[in-house]
Amino acid sequence: MPTGLIIVLVLYGLAFLIGELAYHGGIDSNITRKIIHIGGGAVTAFLPFLVSFRTALALTAFFIVFIFLSERYKFFHSIHNINWQSRGALLFPVSVLASILLFWELSPIVFSGAMLILGLSDGFASLLGRAWGRHHYFITAEKTYEGSLIFFIITLAIFSVFLIIKGSVGFFPISLALLGTIFLTVIEGVSRNGWDNLFLPLVGGGFFLLLF
Q1: What is the C-alpha separation between 61 and 183, in angstroms, rounded?
Q2: pLDDT confidence bin for 80, thresholds 50/70/90
Q3: Which of 32, 172, 173, 177 is the right S-S partner for 159, CB 3.0 to 4.6 Å?
């Protein structure tokens, strides 16, 4: 088995294991699912540097089936044991599959950026917004201004780091990154039932394509 694939499987396994141990240790599943969300997104962002295109497709297809079965038969409580309707767990690997097909062969960097927005921006916005959020708003679902601010800051930071690495810090790329951050923050704010897991990486990847 290739070393890169072993690393990926171990890291994914650790993310799920930490989530399950935290859940059985008494931590709320709304938190444990976001721990797995963040960890899974971070690992996925490095897939182009560890495995091949076909291996990534196979891994993602496996996770789609795995999450579907775990959701149906309720054997993965750290993700599914929540008291509100969400398709986010299943839409996560579906969005990864779509992003692989759309962005991977065009630019691995674009794919990685899209996955970081999915994993870090969305994950920490929900996690910290739930913990610290005091000012709520409702469009299609209840969100917090604090969570949206966290999403904005992390997303802008991701765009900024990638622009610095590229050496492109002119007016146009900075303006486009800011516009993309605002647009993605709006998408996260108006999404419900986990559908932002599908739209965020696809739209984010589109902005990265314009930048790269």
Answers
A1: 29
A2: low
A3: 177
* Res 12: pLDDT: 94
The helix or strand, by DSSP H or E, that contains position 130, with its residue range, turns out to be helix 122-132
Which tokens in the block code for residue 13? 């396994």
Res 77 pLDDT > 90:
no
Q: 144: helix, coil or strand?
A: strand
Rounded to 5 degrees, φ, ψ at 138 are: -135, 120
User: Which structure tokens are listed for 74?
Assistant: 């309720």
d(CA 9, CA 78): 19
| Nearest CA-CA partner of 182 in 159, 210, 211 | 159
Indicate if the alpha-carbon torsion angle 114, 115, 121, 123 is positive or negative: positive
Question: Residues of the chain with pLDDT > 90: what percent?
Answer: 66
User: pLDDT at position 167, please?
Assistant: 82
Domain holding 152, by residue range, is 3-211
Number of domains in the chain: 1
**pLDDT tens digit sequence for 25-38:** 888 888 888 999 99
Separation of alpha carbons 65 and 90, rounded Å: 9
- Count Cβ atoms within 10 A of the Cβ of residue 55 and give its class: 0-12 exposed, 13-18 middle, 19 or more buried: middle
Q: What share of the chain is helix, strand, coil (3-state, %, to 5)?
A: 80, 5, 20
E-strand stretches of the chain: 136-138, 142-144
